[in-house]
Amino acid sequence: MMDRVFNNRTMRFSLFKQFYAIFFLLIMVPAIIASLLVYTHVVKVMEREVDKSSEVVIGQFAGETNKLIHSMQNEMIKLLDYSGLDSFIRSGDGMEQYRRNEIMTGLYDRLQTLIEHPLASSAYMYLPDKQLIIDSSSGHFSPEMFFQYTNFMPELASSERDELFSGRKMMAMTRSMQIQKKPLLSKHTTMSGQYVSAMISYPYNTDSPKVYLVVNINQEQLSQNIKIIDQHYIETAIMNEQGDLLAHAGQHAIDSPALLEAYRKSDAGTASMTVQGRRYRVAFEPSNSYKWIYVSLTDLKELRKPAETIRLGSLIFLSFFLIVGTVISYYLSRRMYMPIKDIKRQLERTRRTSAHLPPQSGNEFDLIKHWSKLLITENKDMSTLISGVSPVVQEHFLGKVLYGELNDDLSVQYYAKEIGLDVDVSGAFSAICIDLQYREYGSRKLTETDKSFLIVELKDGIVKAMETDVRFCLVSKDLLVCIVHLNPGAAESQILVAGEAIRNVCEENTAYYYSAIGLGCAVDGLWHLHESYRLALRLLKGKKLYSGAEICTDLDDWGERSTIESFLSTQKVNQMLQMYESGQREEMLQLVHGMLDSDRLDGAPAERVKQLCIDSLNTWLRAAATDSRHDFSIEKYSSLFQRLHECATIEELKRFFESAHAELFTDQEILPERFEAVLSYIKGNFHSDISIEQFARELNMSIGHFSRSFKEAVGEKYVEYLLRCRMKAAKRLLADTELKLDDIALQVGYLSRNSFIKAFRKHEGVTPGKYRESLSG
Fold it and tell me: Is the model's pLDDT at 472 over the cut of 70?
C-alpha cells in the first residue's frame, strides 16, 4: 500500500516537473531576460550619465583650481622679478647695511602681499648661499632656527629637507606635509596643520638656483576650493603622480595607493575601485600645467538606488509568476495522471515474465516507455549487433591467416565456420597487397576520417571491378590486402587480371593517393595464404617513384634495379659541406636536383632513391649544425624526415628539398612588431622626455632585457638611436630655419643650450654654430 502511494506521488511529481519546465521555458525565461535587460539598461544609462557628469564636474573644479594656482604663480614670479633681488643675490658682505635692510624690507612687504592670495597661508624665501630665510610673518632667520621653530616639518628628516631645496623648481608641488609653529626656544606647538608647498627657484633656468620662493597652501582650504556642493554622492580629490593625496573633498577616507593603482589601470580616463566596502566610479584628468591629477569619485551605491528599486520590483513580479506557474502545473499533473495509470495497469497484465521486469527506477511514464521500446527493439538489437561485428571479426581472422598464426586446414576451417565466413577455404587463393601513399588534397592534408572513406570507396570499387570473390584485410592505415579466390586451372592469369583491375580502380583516385600493387603467388588452401602475402610484400620493396598506380610483379627486375648505389659518396658529402662553408647555398640545392634528375635513378626502387635523399638531408643538417645561428630542434628535424618519407614522386622530392632549403639556409631578419611600435613612437616624440624605463615597463621587460632585445632587433643601442633621431632633426632646423640655439634645443628634447651643444659636438664633431656656418659658406 505504501509503495503504491509512493509511486503515485513519484509519477505526479514527474508530471509536475515536466509541466513546470514547459512553463519556466515559455514564460519565466523571457520574463527573467526582460527584467535583466531592463535592469542592465538602467544601470548602463546611469553610468553613462555619471561619466558625463564626472567630466563636467572634474572640468569645472580643475579649471577653477588651475586659475587660482596660475594666479598664485604669477604673483610669485612678480615677486622674484623685484629689481633689488638680483643685486641682493650678487652682493657679498660688502653691501651697505642700509641698502641691505631696504631690500629685505621690500622683499618682506612683497611676501606680505603674496599671502593675501586665497590659497596662500604663509610664504618665505630661502637663500642657500647666504643661509638666510625671509618669512612673511616673522622677519628673517637662519635656516636652522626657521625650520626648527617657525616652519617645523616633523615628517621630513634634514637630508630629505635638503633634497627638497635642490635643483631647479618651477611651480613644484610637494606632497601634503604637517607643518608646526613653535615659540622661539620652546618645545610647545602653537600652530599645526597639513600644507602643500609650491616652490619656484630663481634664476629660473639654472640647476643651482640662488633663491627658493615657497608658498604654503593649506590643505583644508584647497579641499574647500574643489568641493562640489550640489552633488552629495560625488567626491573630488587632487593627487600627484606619485599617488600622494594633495587635497580631498568628501565624507569618506580615500586610500591613496588604491587610487594610484586605479589611475594606472584606468581606460580612457575612467576606472572603478572599492574603498572600505564602497564601490566608486573614478574619473581622472591630468593637469596640463602642473604635475598632478584631478580626480572625481562617484559613490555607485548611492547612484544605483533607483536601479535597486527596479530590481526589487522585478523580483516580486517574478516570484508572483513562479507561484502561479506552480499552481497551474500541479493542477495539470493531477488531470494527466489518471489515463497514464490505466495504460500502465493494462501493460502489466501482458509482461509477467522475469525477462521483462520493469526498471527499478523511474515512474509509471518511464515504465510505459520502457515496455514500448522493448516490444519494438528486442529482436532488432541482436541482428544489428551481429551484422555490425561480423566484418570486424572476419577481418581479424584474415589478418591472423596472413601472419601465419593459423597455418593448418583444421584450425582455419573451424574458425571460419565459427565466425560465419562464407568462403570455400580449400580453394586456390592469392594475396594482393596495395601500398597507398596519400597526397595532400588541395592545400590540406587528408585526415584519418578522409582516409577511412577513401579505403571504403576503394574496397567498393575493387568488388565491382573483380569477376571473382574477394575479401579485404586492412593490415595498416596504408597497406590494404585483397584476398582473391581463384578458379582452378587458370590461377596465374587470374592474378594478373585481378591486379590490372585493381590498378584501374586505383588510377581513378590518384588525386588522393599513389599506389603500388604487389601480386602474391597462388596457393592451395586459405591456410597457405601467408606465403602469398610474404611474396607480395617482397615485391612492394621494388616499387618505383611513380605518380599513379604501379604493379610490382618481377623479382628479377627488382634485383637488377636494386644494385644502384643508395648511399651518398664521401666526395658528394665533402662537396656539399664546402659549398655551405663558401656560402653557395643555391648550388647545394642544384646539386641535389641534379642527382634526382639523373638517368641513373630513372626506374630505380623508391627505397633506394629515398635512402640517397636521406643521406643528402643528413649532410644538410650536419652543415646547418655548424652554424651557431641555427637552433637544433629534434622535433623540427624529425618532421623533415617524416615529410621526406611521405614523398611519392621525384617532383615531390624536389619540392621537399626546396622547402627544406628555405627552412635551413634562408636568413630572415624580421623586426619584431612590438619594436616597430617603439621606433614609431620615438620618431614622433623624440623631443619629449622619453626614457628606456617607460618602454621596458610597457613591454613587461626588465631594463636590461629591453636594451639587449632592442639592439638585436634594431642594430644599435636605444640611446644611440634616440640621439640619432634628435641630431637629424637638429641639423634640419639649423639648415632650414633661423631659430636660436635655445629654441632648437627645446624642440629636439634638450632643456638647456649647453647640453644640446655638448651632445651635438659629440655626435657630429662640431658645434651647432659651426655646422650652420659651414652650410651658409
Answer: yes
